[in-house]
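re: the backbone from monday

yeah here it is again, tokenized this time
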């Protein structure tokens, strides 16, 4: 192999350890230029190349980029209100056709180059290390192809480095799109080929490197996606110029579901021993810890890890206002009433009349699902030693169950006697308010917000990991695949979903066979996997997004809020009623069009490769 000069990231990379691979990926200056032979015969340098690729793993929303969750899940953007941000988050007429694009062959090239170099250049690396490193690069390549596929459909499948030499016919390097099925099959086959080699990473601290379970989890997820697209694709989603590049047309979903179920079952049997973290003592804290705590964690399979050398500011951006530890900040993403109601009934009115509550937290008292308070903060819920203080205004009692609602513009304000009030609280310390850094929905976020002292300050930040794969998803993947397969598979599927629900505090065997439907499972995933980059993709693969988010104002397309009001006067003085409404800052219904099922190829990519065809319905 010819010698090529490789630019190495930094001296920190030379000495870093991938045990917590993100700890040394900060802003640094280059210190050396090394030959290919030097790089691929030095474990530290190989791990440095791996670390860069791990750091660049594709996601649609994560702890370094919270804004996208307001487009893809049951969360509203309540942060900055400059017009560009506000119009994109809360006033968007429709999803653009280039939304969610990921088409990264630089990343693929790096993976291919690494795989080839380990095979041909690495003469001083042990065979065991070489096998493990190769498996990691293959996993990262497979994961990148999966991420491209769920966005773009079938893409060119490039598994060897391509290099242009003078005089070459460039068309030799231009490849047409592979079918969507081919990409999913490639991802699965790679995962199954490398999972045993990746067992060498099974004990890596904080699951920051791909391990055997991550490979099986990717197989589980990718095959579930392939099966559901094959089964539920819409007739209008096809590309006649290159049939099969989108939509899985003509593919039999059954083998995909079987592979998803088998991969899921292996993880459940071999990694989790048929249990879920916290199932023996269901609580909001135990559910939160299963996702957010690294201590003795038996839930999480693969993560992007953080520590003091590389922290994130997600907690700074999303802490409830009264709990922040810095200047005016917080409440970027706030849960919607729709999400809260998936966990249990919210009774704000009965027979057209407001229901009166002694305390603001009482309206949630009968919700048994502990995931509500593990995911969200509701009024009067305690976090970081403080209670969430949500009050939108006062309800002046006019008699016979009729109230005049009066709101204020400032947090922690009083209903002044000079204004005819009683001197009590008008607006809570946490709002809700129609301005940045305060919730606009009446709820705040708990999941991924760090309870550690100082973690919401800019200088310290948070070390909570971002979870790529965990057991809650694996059980639900198995449940869905088993339900689709039927028979004895469905019996096992019911067991799996009931274990997830048992961990949520809903008791053992809370579902019967009649509850095992695709819509019920979709809602179970909505509850279990909120803020984990699943909601949009679940709606897409099941071809429900265009129907649910159809651009017509409804409880599905608008984001809703629940506002508490303190009663003034009458027999219920100082008690509370609740008013549900469209969140005041949210102006335009979500509008997902048929063309949004697959993201448009950038014109530059089409120009450079005439063998590509554009996705349909653009």
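seq for it, each position gets an aa:
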């Amino acid at each position: 192999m010819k010698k090529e000069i490789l630019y190495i990231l930094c001296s920190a990379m030379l000495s870093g350890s991938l045990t917590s691979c993100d700890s040394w990926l900060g802003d640094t200056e280059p210190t050396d230029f090394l030959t290919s032979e030097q790089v691929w015969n030095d474990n530290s340098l190989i791990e440095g190349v791996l670390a860069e690729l791990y750091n660049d793993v594709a996601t649609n929303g994560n702890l370094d980029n919270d804004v996208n969750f307001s487009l893809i899940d049951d969360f509203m953007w309540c942060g900055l209100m400059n017009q560009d941000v506000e119009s994109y988050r809360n006033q968007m007429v429709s999803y653009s056709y280039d939304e969610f694009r990921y088409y990264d062959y630089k990343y693929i090239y790096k993976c291919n180059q690494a795989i080839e170099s380990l095979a041909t250049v690495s003469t001083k690396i042990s065979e065991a290390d070489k096998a493990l490193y190769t498996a990691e690069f293959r996993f990262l390549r497979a994961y990148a192809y999966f991420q491209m596929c769920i966005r773009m459909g079938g893409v060119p499948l490039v598994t060897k480095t391509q290099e242009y030499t003078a005089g070459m016919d460039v068309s030799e390097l231009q490849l047409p799109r592979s079918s969507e099925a081919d990409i999913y099959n490639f991802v699965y086959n790679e995962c199954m080929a490398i999972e045993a080699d990746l067992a060498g990473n099974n004990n890596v601290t904080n699951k920051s490197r791909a391990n055997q379970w991550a490979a099986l989890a990717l197989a589980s997820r990718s095959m579930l996606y392939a099966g559901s697209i094959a089964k539920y694709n819409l007739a209008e989603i096809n590309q006649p110029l290159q049939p099969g590049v989108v939509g899985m047309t003509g593919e039999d979903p059954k083998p995909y579901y079987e592979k998803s179920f088998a991969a899921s079952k292996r993880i459940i049997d071999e990694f989790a021993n048929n249990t879920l973290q916290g199932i023996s003592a269901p609580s909001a804290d135990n559910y939160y810890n299963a996702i957010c705590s690294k201590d003795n964690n038996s839930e999480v399979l693969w993560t992007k890890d953080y520590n003091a050398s590389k922290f994130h500011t997600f907690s700074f951006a999303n802490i409830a206002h009264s709990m922040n530890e810095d200047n005016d900040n917080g409440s970027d993403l706030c849960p919607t009433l729709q999400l809260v109601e998936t966990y249990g009934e919210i009774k704000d009115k009965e027979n057209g009349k407001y229901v009166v509550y002694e305390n603001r937290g009482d309206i949630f008292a009968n919700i048994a699902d502990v995931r509500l308070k593990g995911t969200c903060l509701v009024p009067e819920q305690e976090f970081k030693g403080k209670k969430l203080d949500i009050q939108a205004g006062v309800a002046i009692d006019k008699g016979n169950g009729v109230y005049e609602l009066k709101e204020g513009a400032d947090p922690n304000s009083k209903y002044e006697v000079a204004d005819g009030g009683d001197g009590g609280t008008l607006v809570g310390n946490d709002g809700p308010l129609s301005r940045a850094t305060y919730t606009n929905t009446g709820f705040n976020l708990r999941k991924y917000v760090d309870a550690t002292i100082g973690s919401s300050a800019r200088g310290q930040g948070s070390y909570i990991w971002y979870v790529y794969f965990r057991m809650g998803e694996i059980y639900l993947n198995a449940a869905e695949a088993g339900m689709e397969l039927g028979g004895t598979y469905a019996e096992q599927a019911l067991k799996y979903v009931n274990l997830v629900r048992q961990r949520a505090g809903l008791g053992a065997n809370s579902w019967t066979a009649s509850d095992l439907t695709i819509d019920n499972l979709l809602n179970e995933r909505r509850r279990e996997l909120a803020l984990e980059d699943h909601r949009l993709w679940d709606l897409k693969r099941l071809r429900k997004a265009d129907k649910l988010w159809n651009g017509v104002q409804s409880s599905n397309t608008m984001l809703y809020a629940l506002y508490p009001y303190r009663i003034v006067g009458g027999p219920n003085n100082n008690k509370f009623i609740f008013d549900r409404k469209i969140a005041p800052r949210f102006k335009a219904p979500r509008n997902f069009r048929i063309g949004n099922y697959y993201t448009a190829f950038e014109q530059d990519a089409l120009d450079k490769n005439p063998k590509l065809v554009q996705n349909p319905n653009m």
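The two ends are 44 Å apart (CA to CA). Confidence is low (pLDDT under 50) at residues 1-17, 19-31.
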